[in-house]
Amino acid sequence: MPVSTPVFIIELHRLKQMASTITSYETHPVVFRLEDRAVRLACQALMEETSDGATIVDTVEEQLVEWLVTRTPALRAQPDVLADEIKSAIGEQGWDGFGSWAWFPWRQTWVRLLPEAAFVSVRTNRNRNKITEEEQALLKQKTVAIAGLSVGSSLAMTLAMERTCGRLKLADFDVLELSNLNRIQTGVHHLGVPKAVAIARAITEVDPYFEVELYRDGFTTANAEDFMDGVDLVCDACDQVQAKANLRWHARAKNIPLIMETSDRGMIDIERYDFPETPYLHGRISDALLQEMREASGWKPEYFDAFIDVSQASPRGVASLQEVGKSLVGWPQLYTDVAGGGAHAAQVIRTIFLGEPVQDARHYLEWNEQLLESVN
């Protein structure tokens, strides 16, 4: 297609070329912004093509009322004024030209939405004023890259839910297995589907305007430069020692802060490679050892201890480590740990983005220990 072809026409053409909209790995809805007449016509054409069996959800009038009331709470008690505000908001084109339709091919569903700015304003309204409007606008400009979507899936969802950033880059090469469903919040209909696809769908179903870019080969040497390009912060949530080392090498080279959350004892590493001369992993990894790790084909005890510090791991974590490959297929991870870790990491990221003081350090946020200390 010519370069000048509108994006929505390209998307429409792509949808028509798909062999099956149900089984394809579509991850982003097609959003038709109705203020443009040509877009309305394209939307109408696709709605007619998908009318057999498609679900339609249209609550845009209620969404508009909610937007107006969040801006001026007193309108709840002024129905006449509210009616005038509704007419003013929809403009001369009326309802047909107001807002957007979003088509979710993997769900065969159409959803009517407010225009982007109003949608984001309402969806984040209950963040106020723990996150102010000015701070929310600043956060929208940020991009976070996450390598690994087991522990990383919780962080990705948390960042998107709060809109702690405006764009996510997600890297994971693995597919969802049944044993993943103790900690990755998705459904059995996604078994066998790439983790990145499942998480991207979950995010765009909450916020169709949110930007998500996927790296379904995972974080690799080949895509490292592209993955790190334009990123304001990166999260290490992957298992491969080579990938962990390369993430840090690129982060320090590009002055990008890095977060690592391990889901054992609530351990979270805040690595401020945006600060001058910050050593790798708080000085736990020398430059020479990091270069060795960048070429490593697997884990060695000294690598594992540098990242995890076995002497500080939980007793059950250490005991489990001895059983990996025997009675256990992998390192245990609980959803409470993963969810808590995602929330803690997202709070740290928000704090960094808002320019508050956050030092290069390792922290432990273990609730069981906090509760025992309070009892003692």
List keywords for this structure.
376 residues; alpha/beta; Rossmann fold; seven-stranded mixed sheet; four-stranded mixed sheet; 15 helices; disordered N terminus
Summarize the structure.
The protein is an alpha/beta fold. The protein is built from 15 helices and 11 strands.
Can you put this structure into words, describing what you see?
It is a single chain. By secondary structure, the protein is of the alpha/beta class. It folds into 2 domains: 30-123, no CATH class; 133-368, Rossmann fold, CATH 3.40.50. It is built from 15 helices and 11 strands. Strands 7-6-5-8-9-10-11 form a 7-stranded mixed sheet, with helices on both faces. A 4-stranded mixed sheet has the order 1-3-4-2. Helix 7 (151-162) packs parallel to helix 8, helix 7 packs across helix 14 and helix 10 packs across helix 11 (287-294).
